[in-house]
Amino acid sequence: MYLVRVVLPDEPGALGTVASALGKTGADIVAVDVMGREDDGTAVDDFVVELPLGGRADALVSACHSVPGVRVVWLSRYAAGGNLRHDLEAIEAMTEEPNDAERVLVHQAPTVFRADWAFLVHAGDGTEGTQIVHATRTAPRLPAGEAFWFPLRSARRLSIPAEWEGHGWRYVAAAAVPLGQPCRALVVGRYGGPDILDSELARLAYLAALSQSVMALSSEE
Where are the alpha helices (DSSP H) in 45-197? Predict the structure, then answer.
């Protein structure tokens, strides 16, 4: 299974032409996500494809580049499988456990955003330091217990400090979003990329806000 991110002309038929080119390699297209549209008339799409035994990943790149105006910006193995319903599944999981909606979102986030890890971190106050409240198994630690993104007012990409790279943060593309308060945040990360797009930041903010609404409604019952 591979994740292929492509930039293509934002015009009728372009997506189908790329899909046809990929199909000629013998690849099975499992999922397609339209990640965003740019002002220059292009779109960014993610294809999750499965190659047959003996299939070559470079054939996927060649197939995409055979279509005029298309370029591949990312290619990697994708172990999570492909499913365009991940956002809805995360919402359903949070509503099933409304009191634990934040924890549920942490563990759903890597699948939803095709990331490697996620954690919920709280900045603490004068008596206690920054703490990771929930985390997936492969999430890195915070060097010296610091979280430079606080206070956090909106979802944003994180520029990782050079001194963090020796602590499991090297070549990480990450983003953070506040969870109810500027001192609480959900952080998601990918090792090596691809970069987190504006459309993904918007989805991250939406799911984070929804987790707070779910918890608030549960407390009123």
Answer: 57-65, 86-96, 101-112
